[in-house]
Design goal:
heteropentamer; A mainly alpha (281); B mainly alpha (308); C alpha/beta (336); D alpha+beta (499); E alpha/beta (319); C: alpha/beta; E: alpha/beta; binds adenosine-5'-triphosphate; binds magnesium ion; BP-dependent_transpt_permease (chain A); peptide transport (chain A); transmembrane (chain A); MetI-like (chain A); membrane (chain A)
Chain lengths: 281, 308, 336, 499, 319
């Protein structure tokens, strides 16, 4: 099934529908955060710090008196933005590595996969912490760290797809027509390998949001006053007894978004019927 | 089988070399160096020099690597610059904590994950399946620093069942294990459920039904072994996660462990320790995959035959 | 092993494709898991495919039919020996030359279900040969060409916009044929083109192939495991067993000389309840291609096998009806 | 009879208990080692291992009478020979400055030593009272070499180090021979607590919850956020003692636009110390208006030099300097936006504070981009000298000579983060550091130096935290008043454990 | 009374009704051929006989399956399960995937006799070895301890049949048991099964798409087309004089010895998919003899000679 149709039909399943609604909402918030937010995300008002939710501040305020609702809307943009761009880069890199390794086979394959497996060997959080130590903190480094941390997964998946596809008759048929490597790889192999890798990427986006949050806890994610959900939560840890809403709402935003991504991704996997292809990696 | 094992071990050697080189490079790419931490503010350049010479940090990187690797091969990972102890001792001191936490979390995730996944698969499509799977997923998606504090708040503060933090008694292990384990439970439950659902669709299962076996018997006697195979693979791949993945939890619960050692030493640029930890983790992972493959072979005669 | 074509089988047509003492080995991947094991999929095959005729190849699963087909098209290279198309060695041809040659030899595959890229429309699939060969077609020419090709194989041209999963197996196989014929090849290798289709569709496809051959002056190398079908469709029949050619029937009606061919024929289910056969002529199953017995590879299953058969591997003789057997069934009759 | 103390984020991971070579020491250090003298909260000095002392009028000789009967944990006697061995040990270490002016140590008799000075040092007693001046057992020290302080630490203090695991905990057991407590304690020894486990807890919330549930009995530092909750807790007593720390914003005087003193001043006047003190720190501690902690005499500068929030003045200065307000509220000059870098190091307090500072700077027209570094990287970055502009940081020191640390030209980069290099300041520095003969003279000199630094806006003062600690009254009973500058062994000696 | 009587069997899966009103009967010692092209509902019928439709979310919507006097359709699943393996056994199409890959083939056979015969491990194994020898498996004792992937396809199919026989069933349902096998092996297996039926007095439902197999092995045959019966009757009369145009065409699709080239035509068009089953005669679109009536209503089966034929224009009527 084409991925476009699948996106729609996944959104019509009982599991997919609520998830799709949530995701559309989050993306909407991310895009229109500027218009939707009642306050500027960095507008402080120390006299109004740690206010509980009220009509003026729907979700309350944080320790600097900033409006949590506005920050969560903007946070959608940052958290999602970081997760999506870094996973996007990760998927792209993984595809390149995986496709080359899978298509070339032999020593090129072993070598590339040995490198990939090295990053696979370490927990993503450690990779991220080490990389950020090298690159210095900030959103850019976080994105790089996430990119590297997850790349192995996509490279392996892409490679498995390519290897499986190489055995398909239509590839042999196309070779039989006289096609060269570029044609085979770019016109047939990569496009057909793409779907599962993209879906795996989508699922990983959820994990990336959580990873960014955890890095934020170590002070390494988005730099203040940028409100990524993770940064908001980690700042809220100190406040959790005084003003629990400061940590609860961003936490909920993460949990709901990530669960929605997973549920929708699951529905999508079923719609595309690629569950066993996903496992090959 | 033995031959296979030996061959795999030999194959690990180049991987080990590549890994150690990368580890070494990465560590030395990090800006700042341990001397900064030893010097009082405003120390002289000579003093710097002297310290650098003392720890061999003034030599070319290649030489440093060669010396380190040579020693590492004899089991000597050098002496910590800041922590002033043999790195091996530091690792050995922290390893038991990592293992205790990692293995218990693994056990917990496996037992609970497999049970929950199996139950969900048995009742696949029912409300039970949906509620349980969604619940687990939700739990696993909370960042662990928050989940950890929540656990403390509920189980240690409100209910007073376990100590808040530390690693001084067995019961201090419970909350960290739960915190780390929930993510694993979700992962394993999903893998298990999917595996059950998938094997259940295979031809030979139709034939099991045709033999007149009850659904229960088919499920618990026959499908279980198949469903566990992907779980074993996952577990083999997760050794790194066991040894070093719990940094956040170690931090929140003020527990020792390889992850924390690594992060602290990274902060202090205590190169030998960072290198040692990374190497240790890498080797753990390599061994983990090997053990995973062997377990796979033990469970699956097809794999076994391919190995001989 | 014969000395090849010089003293080989006289054929009526000029050979368009030639196998000269071709071996092809496969090595199972070694590496992490397994010891390397070498399997000889095609064993010392010497064969001419005469132009304008239908040469049939029969044999059971794993006997090397598909490998032979791939070798014929240069999709894989022989381990030893030479495969030449119109006199040119495929193994040494340059890439660009190979591409040109490929326009003149095409293949139709066994499994129609996976022989079209699921992401392509049928129209794109039948036009892909032109893209690959660097032949540019304008929009109108494209549509016309696709229509012509689909029409040629008896498909509704409106299918061009569909994706393969909307088509039935028979329709897909027609698309496969259209694609193979797009560049107007001379040789078409048909690798069990009907094996995965229902009988009613199989018969349609065979009829289509017959018609196209007559119209386009094609040479067929027709591969099948169905002896009855091959006998119906082919001019010459090559019988393979475990990678080796054991008999070449010069015509479908020629008397059978090899015990294996006999067994194959006797195993066929004749659709006539009044002619029920003593089935089970052949006993045992095809041994593993990894460790071939030293003598005749068919000896373990052959009712006529004796010590000689188990020790010495028989060579294809040089008669008009070559057979590789120490005890051919017509020994008394035809001399060799 | 056993208690658990906890040290939190800032002190976590202190790698050793070697006072001679260490650059960081944690709070447990004072339980292991005794010093020659102790300083009380009122800045007065009290005998500890030194029973009495004397200085010649020219300040060139100091004679210390040592307390008799003192033994190290390893049984070695404490006497004049120890001091003779000890003082030279500092040479070449990072703490060398503390005794740099001591020329040599003369053993007068077994219990008397005389310091012969290179130059008078009015600050000597202060230095001797610092935590780096805990005296280790020479025998153990020499035997262990590099590993001293990690595998073992041997002092004369009321507690012996039983086991130390870096980053985790230190187990201390009572020194039953200890009878030489100072007059800052009621109990002269041995301690009433038998065993202390000092745990290191990096997460503040965890530490707080441990105290709340009785998992630990004493928290050495309490994050301000938790104070209201702890105060509400019946079984917890929160105590505040005057702080030793100043939080400030160094301004890189050599990085444009801060080369312009008006821009520096504008940045300094943009900081609203009061609202930070009130809302961020709940009114605990003090606002800071100078560079020194308020208990020092040198801190009492002429009010016209004190820097405190004045947004109008700030804006006016910027206008004068040519920085005009743009449409988004950020100022610009010649097309360049007033975009500056604002750094800090990782740590909950700094991370919070820096956000407020950023927002206050924005209010007057600075756009500040925050970067949060880990502690080791940030110093390396400062040392590059060209990368940084503004920062939020703090120091903890109870002597005016800290101005020299942070503003002397020869230490530009780090610790002179302001890259302050000014002839007049250098002159004042020399006077204050080397030309003062008496304490009063020194005070006057440093005050002048302090005032001059303030007048140049090389930094902006922000906040002076109080030392806040808390303990569980269920298990511990501490004296009502805390003697000394910090919570150290003299208070723990008097501590009682119930049940 | 026949061992198995199926009447008006209609199978539904969700919105679809892939099998409609199928009926046949079968005695002990007889082989019934169920023949039809892909998708004609052969496997679903087999699943219905085995009571395994729930596995694929299917159900018997109408009709009856009477086995040895007991009605099975739409009865508690447990009733059917008790018969499975013991009285009714199944042989499936693909021996490559029909066996559990991680258990030895021996234990898989043993399991049946332990479960249904109440034998202990040793007795079960002895019985399995007997059965394997009856299946002409060489070196049965060795094979007993081997895993499926170590055996050839033909060998595996023999194991599957041995497994089916282990419960001593009365009825064997074989769903295309030889399709995946080599021609030479195929012949052996079919022969083996027919011999077993005769020797043990079993009844066999042999599902196939190959009229050749039917001609060689079956006593009676049911020809299915798109989920319905086209024609049913004794093998001899069906081959000698097919009444349904489809049956005749199907027989004509197999080339026979000496058949002249160009005479093989096949059946034009294609089998309709489940979603576009016409309401009228389903074969009409491909039928050379189709009339307006054929395109308006569905013919009900009628008796012609020894056969039942669902066609408005049966061939050779009165012949
Ligand atoms: N790429 C390959 N790698 C390894 N072994 C191969 C490869 N291709 C074919 N073989 C082996 O070579 C032998 C001959 O295979 P081939 O596909 O030519 O047989 P075939 O006669 O076409 O069989 P079938 O009727 O099943 O299509 C088989 O044993 C097969 O397993
Ligand atoms: N689980 C299922 N869900 C939906 N439709 C099904 C299912 N199983 C079979 N069908 C449909 O029911 C119809 C009959 O299927 P069945 O498997 O009985 O055919 P068959 O005659 O056995 O064909 P084949 O020769 O291909 O095995 C087909 O159209 C098929 O698509
Ligand atoms: Mg083939
Ligand atoms: Mg079927």
């Amino acid at each position: 099934m084409a991925i476009g149709t699948a996106l729609l039909s996944a959104a019509r399943t009982p599991r997919g529908a609520p998830a799709a609604i949530v995701l559309v909402g989050v993306v909407f918030a991310a895009i229109f955060a500027d218009r939707l937010a009642p306050y500027a995300y960095d507008m402080q008002s120390l006299m109004q710090a740690n206010l509980p939710p009220s009509a003026a501040h729907l979700l309350g305020t944080d320790e600097f008196g900033r409006d949590l609702f506005s920050r969560i809307l903007h946070g959608a943009r940052i958290s999602l933005g970081v997760a999506v761009t870094s996973i996007g880069a990760s998927v792209a890199l993984g595809l390149v590595f995986g496709a080359i390794a899978g298509y070339a086979g032999g020593w090129a394959d072993r070598l590339l996969m040995a490198v990939v497996d090295l990053t696979w060997a370490f927990p993503e959080i450690l990779i991220a912490l080490v990389l950020i130590a090298i690159l210095g903190p900030g959103l850019g480094s976080t994105a790089v760290a996430i990119t590297v941390g997850y790349m192995a997964q996509f490279a392996r998946l892409a490679r498995a797809q390519i290897i499986a596809l190489k055995g398909e008759t239509y590839i042999e048929a196309t070779v039989g027509l006289g096609a060269g490597h570029a044609h085979i790889l770019l016109r047939h192999l990569v496009p057909n390998a793409l779907t599962p890798v993209l879906v795996a990427g989508m699922l990983a986006t959820g994990d990336a949001i959580v990873l960014e949050a955890t890095l934020g806890y170590f002070g390494l994610g988005a730099q203040p006053p940028l409100p990524s959900w993770g940064a908001m939560m980690s700042a809220g840890v100190g406040q959790m007894f005084l003003a629990p809403w400061v940590i609860v709402f961003p936490g909920l935003a993460i949990a709901i978004t990530v669960v929605a991504i997973n549920l929708y991704g699951d529905a999508l996997i079923d719609a595309l019927q690629i569950r066993n292809r996903l496992r090959e990696g | 089988m033995l031959g296979y094992f030996v061959r795999r071990l030999i194959m690990l050697l180049p991987v080990f070399l590549a890994m150690s080189a990368i580890v070494f490079l990465i560590v030395h790419l990090v800006p700042g160096d341990p001397i900064d931490h030893m010097l009082q503010i405003g120390a002289s350049a000579e003093r710097r020099q002297e310290l650098a010479a003392k720890f061999g940090l003034d030599r070319p990187l290649v030489v440093q690597y060669a010396l380190w690797l040579k020693a590492a091969l004899t089991g000597d990972l050098g002496e910590a610059i800041i922590l002033k102890q043999p790195v091996v001792d530091l690792i050995l001191a922290n390893l038991p904590y990592s293992l205790a936490l990692g293995l218990s979390a693994l056990l917990f995730s496996t037992v609970v994950g497999v049970s929950v996944g199996a139950a969900a698969a048995y009742f696949a499509g029912s409300w039970f399946d949906r509620v349980v799977m969604a619940g687990i997923l939700m739990g696993s998606m909370l960042p662990s620093f928050w989940l950890g504090l929540l656990m403390i708040l509920i189980f240690a503060v409100e209910l007073g069942l376990f100590p808040v933090s530390g690693a001084r008694s067995w019961d201090a292990l419970v909350l960290p294990v739960l915190t780390v384990g929930i993510g694993g439970v979700a992962l394993i439950a999903r893998v298990t459920r999917a595996a059950f659902v998938e094997v259940a669709q295979q031809d030979f299962v139709t034939l099991l039904h045709a033999k007149g076996l009850t659904r229960r018997r088919i499920f618990f006697r026959h499908l279980v072994r198949h469903a566990l195979m992907p779980v074993v693979t996952i577990l083999g791949l997760k050794v790194g996660w066991i040894l070093g993945g719990a940094v956040t939890v170690e931090y929140v619960f003020a527990r020792p462990g390889l992850g924390s050692l690594l992060i602290t030493s990274l902060g202090q640029r205590d190169y030998p320790v960072v290198q040692g930890c990374l190497l240790m983790l890498g080797m753990g992972v390599m061994l983990g995959t090997l053990v995973g493959d062997l377990a796979q072979a033990a469970m699956d005669p097809r794999v076994r035959d391919r190995m001989s | 092993m014969t000395d090849g074509l010089t003293t080989g089988v006289p054929t009526t047509g000029v050979p368009i494709l030639r196998f000269e003492d071709v071996n092809r080995d496969f090595t199972t991947p070694g590496g992490w898991f397994a010891r390397r094991r070498v399997l000889r999929a095609v064993n010392a095959v010497t064969l001419d495919v005469p132009a304008g005729r239908v040469t049939g190849v029969v044999g059971e699963s794993g006997c090397g039919k598909s490998t032979l087909a791939r070798l014929a098209l240069g999709l894989i290279k022989p381990t030893d020996g030479r495969v030449s198309f119109e006199g040119e060695d495929l193994a040494t041809a340059r890439r660009a030359r190979l591409r040109q040659l490929r326009a003149r030899m095409q293949m139709v595959f066994q499994d129609p279900y996976s022989s079209i890229d699921p992401r392509m429309t049928i129209g794109d699939a039948v036009l892909e040969p032109f893209v690959v060969q660097g032949i540019r077609l304008t929009g109108a020419a494209r549509a016309a060409k696709a229509e012509a090709l689909l029409g040629m194989v008896g498909l509704d041209p409106s299918l061009a916009r569909n994706h393969p999963h909307h088509l039935s197996g028979g329709q897909k196989q027609r698309v496969g044929i259209a694609r193979a014929l797009a560049l107007e090849p001379r040789l078409v290798v048909l690798d069990e083109p009907t094996a995965s289709l229902d009988v009613s569709i199989q018969a349609q496809i065979v009829a289509l192939l017959e018609a196209l051959k007559a119209r386009l002056d094609l040479t067929y190398l027709f591969i099948s495991h169905d002896l009855a079908l091959v006998r119906y469709f082919c001019d010459r029949i090559v019988v393979m067993y475990l990678g080796a050619v054991v008999e070449i029937l010069p015509s479908p009606a020629a008397p059978i000389r090899h015990p294996y061919t006999r067994a194959l024929l006797d195993s066929a289910f004749v659709p006539d309840p009044t002619r029920r056969q003593t089935l089970a002529r052949a006993t045992g199953e095809i041994p593993s291609a990894f460790d071939l017995p030293p003598g005749c590879v068919y000896a373990p299953r052959c009712p006529l096998a004796d010590e000689t058969c188990r020790r010495i591997r028989p060579q294809l003789d040089r008669s008009a009806h070559p057979v590789a057997c120490h005890h051919p069934l017509d020994r008394a009759g035809a001399g060799s | 009879q056993e208690v658990t103390f906890a040290i939190t984020a800032r002190e976590v991971g202190t790698p050793s208990y070697n006072p001679i070579t260490a650059t960081r020491l944690n709070s447990a250090n004072s339980l292991i080692y005794d010093r020659l003298v102790l300083q009380d909260a009122d800045q007065s000095f009290h005998p500890s291992l030194a029973a009495s002392w004397d200085q010649t009028p020219d300040g060139m000789q100091w004679t210390f009478k040592l307390r008799p009967g003192v033994k190290f944990h390893d049984g070695e006697p404490f006497n004049a020979k120890v001091i003779e061995w000890w003082v030279p040990k500092f040479a070449g270490t990072e703490n060398a400055d503390t005794v740099a002016k001591v020329d040599r140590v003369e053993v007068v008799d077994d219990l008397t030593v005389r310091f012969h000075m290179k130059a008078p040092d009015p600050n000597l007693l202060f230095n001797l009272a610092s935590s780096f001046m805990g005296i280790p057992s020479p025998k153990a020290y020499e035997a262990l070499g590099d590993k001293y302080g990690v595998t073992a630490a041997v002092g004369t203090g009321p507690f012996k180090m039983e086991k130390f695991t870096v980053g985790q905990q230190t187990v201390l057991v009572r020194n039953d021979d200890f009878t030489w407590g100072s007059d800052l304690s009621v109990n002269r020894g041995p301690a009433k607590i038998k065993k202390i486990t000092v745990r290191e807890i990096p997460e503040d919330s965890t530490a707080f919850l441990e105290l709340q549930t009785g998992g630990v009995d004493l928290l050495y530092t309490v994050p301000v956020d938790f104070m209201p909750r702890l105060k509400a807790e019946k079984s917890v007593k929160v105590m505040t003692i005057p702080g030793t720390e100043i939080v400030y914003m160094p301004i890189n005087t050599q990085s444009a636009p801060f080369t312009d003193i008006k821009v520096r001043a504008a940045a300094a006047y943009a900081i609203d110390q009061k609202s930070i003190w009130q809302s961020l720190y709940g009114g605990v501690g003090n606002t800071a208006n100078g560079f020194l902690i308020s208990s020092l005499q040198e801190a009492k500068v002429d009010p016209k030099f004190a820097i405190s929030y004045d947004p109008e003045r700030s804006k006016k200065l910027l206008d004068e300097a040519g920085w005009k307000v743009g449409p988004d509220g950020i100022r610009a000059k010649d097309g360049a936006r007033l975009q500056v870098k604002l750094w800090t190091s990782n740590g909950t307090e700094f991370k919070r504070l820096v956000e407020v500072v950023q927002s206050q700077l924005k209010a007057v027209g600075f756009a500040a981009d925050i970067t949060i570094f880990d502690a080791s990287t940030i110093n390396a970055q400062y040392k590059k000298k060209t990368e940084h502009q503004l920062a939020v940081r703090s120091y903890s020191w109870t002597n005016a000579d800290i101005i020299d640390w942070f503003f002397a030209a020869r230490r530009a980069g780090y610790p002179n983060v302001s890259l302050f290099d000014d002839p007049k300041a250098e002159e004042l520095n020399v006077t204050a550091m080397t030309k003062s003969r008496t304490w009063d003279e020194r005070v006057a000199n440093f005050k002048a130096y302090h005032e001059y630094i303030l007048s140049q806006y090389a930094f902006a003062p922000i906040y002076e935290p109080a030392n806040v600690f808390a303990y569980s009254t269920r298990r511990l009973k501490l004296p009502e008043t805390i003697r000394g500058t910090r919570l150290t062994s003299q208070t723990i000696l008097d501590a009682q454990v119930s049940n | 009374m026949a061992l198995l009587e199926v009447e008006g069997l209609t199978i539904g899966i969700g919105r679809f009704t892939p099998v409609q009103e199928i009926g046949f009967s079968l005695d002990r010692g007889a082989v019934l051929g169920l023949v039809g092209e892909s998708g004609s509902g052969k496997s679903l019928t087999a699943m219905a006989l085995m009571g395994l439709l729930p596995l694929i979310r299917g159900e018997v919507r109408a009709g009856s399956i009477v086995f040895d006097g007991v009605e099975l359709a739409n009865r508690p699943a447990e009733l059917h399960r008790r018969l499975r393996g013991r009285r009714i056994a199944l042989v499936t199409q693909n021996p490559m995937t029909s066996l559990d890959p991680i258990r030895t083939v021996g234990t898989q056979i043993d399991e049946v006799s332990r479960l249904h015969g109440g034998l202990d491990g040793r007795a079960a194994k002895a019985r399995s070895l007997d059965l394997m020898e009856a299946m002409r498996i060489p070196r049965a004792a060795v094979v007993h301890g081997q895993y499926p992937h170590q055996l050839s396809g033909g060998m595996k199919q023999r194991i599957v049949i041995a497994m089916a026989l282990a419960g001593d069933p009365d009825l064997l349902v074989a769903d295309e048991p030889t399709t995946a096998l080599d021609v030479t092996v195929q012949a052996q297996i079919v022969r083996l099964m027919v011999d077993l039926v005769k020797a043990r007095g079993l009844a066999l439902v042999l599902i196939t798409h190959d009229m050749g197999v039917v001609a060689q092995a079956c006593d009676r045959v049911v020809v299915l087309y798109a989920g319905r019966i086209a024609e049913a009757g004794p093998v001899e009369s069906i081959f000698a004089a097919p009444h349904h145009p489809y049956t005749r065409a199907l027989i004509g699709c197999i080339p026979v010895e000496g058949q002249a080239r160009g005479t093989l035509i096949g059946i034009p068009g294609q089998v309709p998919g489940l979603t576009d089953y016409p309401a009228h005669c389903r074969f009409a679109p491909r039928c050379p003899a189709a009339s307006a009536r054929c395109r308006a209503e569905a013919p009900a089966p009628a008796t012609i000679g020894a056969s039942r034929v669902a066609c408005f224009h049966p061939l050779g009527r009165g012949a």
